[in-house]
# Entry
Amino acid sequence: MMLVVDSGSTKTDWAIIDGLNHTCYDSPGINPSSDLELLSLSEHNSFLAEKSQYITQIYYYGAGVIDSLTEKRIHDWLIKHFKNSIDIIISSDLVGACKALAGDRKGIVSILGTGCNSCTYDGQQITDNIPTFGFSLSNEGAGTEIGKAILQTYFYRKMPSDVKMEFERKNKICKSSVVHALYQESNPAAFLAKYARFINETANMEWRKAILIPLFESFVDVRIKSYFDYSAYELYFVGSIAYFCQDILKEVLENNNLQVAEIRQKPIDGLIKYHKQKQS
# Structure
């Protein structure tokens, strides 16, 4: 059996492929660059843990896989849970996004979820990549930045009264809880990103645009227009922010004379299709 894994900082999708059939599972996110401890699979997904003895081949695509150290950390963690696996290939989530969306076609492939990233892709490999440094230094347009902008407008008293009432009805929040989550909890990125959901819950479309447009403009400027001859590429997007905010994202792209080829919520379905085709 083959196991295909797509992991973001918030959620991980697992697919066991057995010939033409496949079964999907999910668990909390995994990020070897920021997580102090990697999750215990038996605690979060007993069904997957039960199947682990039958897995012999693993393709892992994940956020935070940025060098040999983070790759080794994931490899050792996988070996701990899947002892019979003899073929383990570990790649970044960006490589996974390229295979899931572009396949064998060239394009600029972007991730807009909890975090963000982008690259140029020639149909076989990544040819250029603007580096990303996580929610502390980058994440233009991503869930962490949207969450941060929402919290700032709330605490800085810039949030419209109707939005403020709506926000307070759905969230119990105070300064001390924010400080604790950001500086003492293990996953501050996920904490920030959870408030990004509110951007699609508010009825105030003017405020929604005021939050999203500058963040998406920043993404386009940094993570698309920085590439040589960027206008010659088709654009592919994956991630919850790209998918659920695609109305504003498309508006920003059109204002920059850019057209999107495809937007998906998550890569796992594309990765399942890709790996089934490669093994047939």
In short: The longest helix spans residues 205-223. The radius of gyration is 19 Å.
